[in-house]
Every structure is written in structure tokens, then in C-alpha cells.
Amino acid sequence: MLKINYQGHSCFILDDGKNKIVIDPFFNGNPFATMKPEEVEVDAVLVTHCHYDHLGDAVQISQKNNAVIIGTFELTRYCESKGATNVHPMHIGGARRFDFGEVKLTPALHGSGSGEDGAVGVACGFLVKMGGKLIYHAGDTGLFGDMHLIGDLNEIDVAMVPIGDNFTMGIRDAVKAVQFLRPRIVIPMHYNTFDVIKADPQEFLRLVQSTKSQGVVLNYGEIYEVPVK
Ligand code: NI
Ligand code: MN
Asked: How far, in Å, from the CA of 193 to the mean position of ligand 2?
């Protein structure tokens, strides 16, 4: 069993009934978040890159829950410099088992600077095995050909892909990504939060019908249980 709680933008809480993790914990400043960071109870915090709309409230949530922050070496070091005491550095291509499940870092074509402190390594995506399901969170990324390889090597149950354009893939490239990844279910993310990433998720759904994947648009705060195969 795996439940996915969508908090808008690229922020998802995964819950298998035993453990909970949050990916890209952008709550403060996220117009769509239905929870406050202090309400988030998780065992781990996964962060794709250091941009504020992804790093979000990672350090605060980690401190409050003693939850481990998982990300690239550079990002976890950055979090430590901001007061985090429980981090686990990884890097692209590497996988590791944790109590809640398995995490593998995938490439993402994107930056990871914090703004104030300059570059903080590179961006990544995550493959997460949890609750008997395989989740792929692409992070912020443009379309890249090795998504085909990620699709070949993994039977993805749910892929989360950005569709907002400007900073990441737009809808047409995201549909191409779905063709490469071949997930059972695809959830669009990273749209409509800011004026420059306005996109219509229904148009994405319509175009995804040309693939073998099922598109699912989640409402903000909706809890979606991944269906059994
Ligand atoms: Ni970004
Ligand atoms: Mn972003």
C-alpha cells in the first residue's frame, strides 16, 4: 500500500502505513500547500536540489522529526551548514536501503544554486521503492534521452514529471518523457505555482492518452492511493 499526498508544486508526502517521507518539502511560501511545515510528520526528507521551491522547509522538518535529509553530497552539506543534524549524502547513480525503503538518485538537467550561497552541486531526481511500489520523482529537469534508460531499467508504478515549462520541461516534452519512462501512472507537477510556469494539466492528460500510461492530476491536499496492478 502506498498513499501519495500532493501539496502542490513538486511536494509530495509518501505514506506506506508504516513510514512517511516527504519529497521537495516546499510548504512556507507555496500557495497550494494545505499543510504547515510544523504539521509534517515524516521519517525522511528527500530534496532534489537547492532551489528554494524544493529545499523549502527541509531543515525545519528534519530538526522537528529527527528525519534524515537525503540528497546529493553538496546539498546535504549545505543543509548541515543551515543547522540540520541528520543527513545522508548520496550522489547520482547511487542507491541505498533505508528503514522506509530504497532510494536511488537519478540525473536531472537543472541547476542547484541556493541563490545566496552560489552553486550547491547539481540537481537530481529520485527513484523510491516504498510500500511495494516504485516511484520516480523527476525533480526539476529538461527532457533528456537517458529517461529511456531509466524506463528500461525500472518498472515504474508512478512517475511525477514537471510540465510548467520555462524552468523545466513543458507539456510536449513531458509527454515525450512519459514515452521514455513508460510508468503505469504519471502525475504532472511544477505548474501554476508562479505566473511563468502556468500550464494546463488537463492538456497534459489529453496528450498522455496517446501513451500506455495513465495520467492522474492530483488536487492540492488530495491523498491518492496507488492502485494495485
Ligand atoms: Ni529548480
Ligand atoms: Mn523548481
From this structure: 10
- pLDDT tens digit sequence for 180-217: 999 999 999 999 999 999 999 999 999 999 999 999 99
User: In the sheet where 158-162 sits, what is the strand order?
Assistant: 95-97, 102-107, 124-130, 133-137, 158-162, 185-189, 214-215
Using CB atoms within 10 Å of the CB of residue 72, give its burial: 0 to 12 exposed, 13 to 18 middle, 19+ buried. Answer: buried
User: β-strand 124-130 against 102-107: which pairing, if any?
Assistant: antiparallel
- Closest to 177 measured CA to CA, from 202, 200, 207, 198: 207
Q: What are phi and psi of 161, to 5 degrees?
A: -125, 140
Kindly give the distance from the C-alpha atom of residue 15 to the centroid of ligand 1, in angstroms, as a whole number.
25
Q: How far apart are CA 229 and CA 225, in angstroms?
A: 12
Alpha carbons 54 and 64: distance in angstroms, whole number: 18
Report the DSSP pairing between strands 68-72 and 158-162: unpaired
Task: State the DSSP code for 85.
Answer: -
The 10 Å Cβ neighbour count of residue 150 is 23
CA 156 to ligand 2 center in whole angstroms: 23
At 109-156, the pLDDT tens digits run 999 987 777 668 999 999 999 999 999 999 999 999 999 999 999 999
